[in-house]
Specification:
Strand order of the largest sheet: 1-2-3-4-5-7-6
Structural class: alpha+beta
Number of strands: 7
Radius of gyration: 15 Å
Largest sheet: 7 strands, mixed
Helix content: 25-40%
Distance between the termini: 26 Å
């Protein structure tokens, strides 16, 4: 079973490979990160680790065999017991329950390790798989949201609920 690991410096090459290999796949559902993301990735990765060290974000990678990154599960904009959840899973790993498992695990970490009480997540209406992942994890639809000009749905998870 793949391991959910807190992002570390040694993950940089595998994360960059994951993002490059899945760029076109991700762009079907979320806005493309742009070429600068890839050319300046080393600095970006270091900045993420700085944010994580400050406690404003918690980044995780789902690591499979041989250190291959299969997914990313991030808690960003941590403040006042709340954070926003974002996640993406490699195309070759899609449909195997890894997104659901990764979201479940990061929600548990949010509650037990990071002391969060509430998570927010949004998914495009054109991405029924992500909407289903959020529903399975217990997120409740809160209302419409626009995601890069496309209709989406904002969800909330109360981590204090049983």
């Amino acid at each position: 079973m793949p391991q959910l690991e807190r992002l570390a410096a040694h993950h940089a090459p595998a994360v960059l490979r994951f993002e490059r290999e899945n760029r076109a796949y991700f762009a079907r559902y979320v806005p493309d990160r742009g070429d600068d993301f890839f050319t300046g990735y080393a600095a970006r990765h270091a900045a993420l680790l700085d944010e994580q060290e400050r406690g404003t974000c918690h980044f995780h990678v789902l690591v499979g065999d041989h250190g291959t990154v299969l997914g990313r599960f991030n808690l960003v904009d941590v403040a006042d017991g709340s954070a926003e959840l974002g996640y993406r899973v490699a195309e070759r790993a899609a449909g195997r329950g890894l997104a659901s498992e990764g979201v479940r695990r990061v929600c548990e970490l949010a509650r037990t390790e990071y002391g969060l009480r509430r998570l927010v997540a949004s998914a495009a209406l054109a991405n029924p798989a992500s909407l289903a992942v959020l529903k399975r994890a217990g997120f409740v639809p809160e209302g419409p949201v626009e995601l890069a000009g496309e209709p989406g749905l904002r969800h909330v998870l109360d981590l204090r609920a049983p």
